[in-house]
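Homework help board

Subject: predicted structure for assignment chain

Our instructor gave us this sequence and asked us to write out the predicted structure in token form, then describe one feature. I got the tokens but I'm not sure how to describe them. Can anyone check?
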Amino acid sequence: MTRLVAIAAALAFLVALPASAQAATCTPPKYPGSGYFTSLKATKVSCGEASKVALAFHKCRTKKGVKGRCVSKVRKYSCTEKRTTISTEINGRVTCKYGSRKVELTYQQNT
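My token output:
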């Protein structure tokens, strides 16, 4: 009986956690080009899946060159990007959503 009470208390604690507790800061994957991912955050998705989304977004974005844009879904995620550019680099902030799942990443691409 005591064990059942402990399990019930643990479940009640988990249910009471805010949604932000389901977010994780992940180690970004190795950048496949000249540049690097500077951050990766996953909400309601594993870090492994977040890495796959980041790499799929990069592949989509660079399909037509390093300055390209991704306008299609990647791994079922719809992504939006904000970027700043100078003559030698692009700095991007990307948010990809699929239902309640969210992957946020930043990158620097050398041009």
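Reply (TA_rk): Your tokens look well-formed. For the description, you could write something like this. The chain is about 25% helix and 40% strand. That's the kind of observation they're looking for.
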